[in-house]
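Homework-ish question, so no full write-ups if that breaks the rules, but can someone show me the predicted structure for this set?
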Amino acid sequence: MLTSTERTARTRIRVSPADTGRCQVRSTVTLSDPTASSLRPVLVQHDQAGARISLVPEGALLLAGDRVEIDIAVDAGVRLDVVEPGGTVAFDMRGGRARWDVRITLGRGAVLTWAGEPFVVSAGAAVQRSTRARIRDGAVVALREALVLGRHGEESGRVQQSTEVLSESGPVLVEDLTIDALTAPALLGGHRVMSSVVLVGTSPPDDPPEHRYDLDAGAVLWRRLGVQAHEADLSAAWRAVRRTTGSGEV
Amino acid sequence: MPHPELLLLLLADARLPVGGHTQSGTLEGALTHGLTANDVPGYLRTRLLSSTRVEAGTAVVARATVERHGSLDQVERAWAARTVSPALREASRTQGHALMRLVRRTWPDLSRPLDDVVRPSRSTVLGAVSAGLGLGAASVARLVAYDDVQTVCAAALKLLPLDPVTVAGWAAEALNGIADLEAAVSWAELPTDIPACSAPQIEAWAQAHAASTRRLFRA
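A: Not a homework solution, just the prediction itself:
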């Protein structure tokens, strides 16, 4: 639970088909108070089939009391590629905490790719992260993430991470992970970096076979643990996913 | 039906022909990748806080689902969405098959709720059968957790040069962790109530182990 001192920054993005030659992109950023730091959606590219948006941080993220909400909807038949200009650091919160909640809703045949950059949980940080994706039939979602526990030479902060991907026919991936300096050695085998790429809604590529978990519902998760970031590298999997989803350059 | 306590003893007995001896609770994979004998008690605790909660929660919810005549297919899907490692899903379904064979011969009526589920996991079968046998939710949770502890301990004795009394001591120490797990999962009723606690390192070891050709245990 957060205290009443929390600062909420909600970023909403909706991409819809339009017959004006370009799809429609609507976005709003709502702040609970003027001091709240936020993620500003910057439209990088935009055509009839879809859009590319960069989520640019405004102000210092992520501090005690911050609550970041990202709400993304992609309507039937259009596409959104989300990129981030850099990683995010959750700083020492000295007893406070922060939240980072992502909600994704995809219509039939919609495509969302999100090339997440590293999310660093500094010693003393306490963050609750959630990602909830609801996808209709024929929609495709591809998400890349890297969780880094502690800055260089530092022990891990506390992060509670929950992921839920639901398709029309039921749950595809449901996962909760609570990591702190005590549980990290056992749950992650002494590793400090956990990278993942998940692809749902399309027939997955055959390659790469390494670090790969084929899920029951036809989706694929690639996940790799490393002591250093390069040991948890999943760029081959992300390239394969981008080819499969027909993305351009990222 | 015999006393539930006797049925619980029967189901917890490693001599039951349900393939328990083929499983190490991923301990073999863990030892291959650097875990040592000293780490085994901690490994037991980690499992009771993560993957075993998913299994026990699934069994508890399968039991509740049979009691209210619901669909076990939803339970099985919820379990599968929480079990990312195909090697662990396969190991559980193979064991589920062996348990089904026993149930069909011993208590034919009790296998009926499972008829619509294609290759149910061990936890789904165990939970569904427990409903028919009159076992309570807490008993089912303890059964799954106790079985996991003893699976790892029995495998440790085959894989490491250990004194059996030492290993029995580890199992006894783990009993408090089983009580915590039971408190955390036995209230669950619906598929969405099933815990989703993952253990990425155990899942990675399970995948690596499944691809290995030199092994004593299937999983």
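Now go work out the reasoning yourself. Hint: The CA atoms of residues 145 and 178 of chain B lie 6 Å apart.
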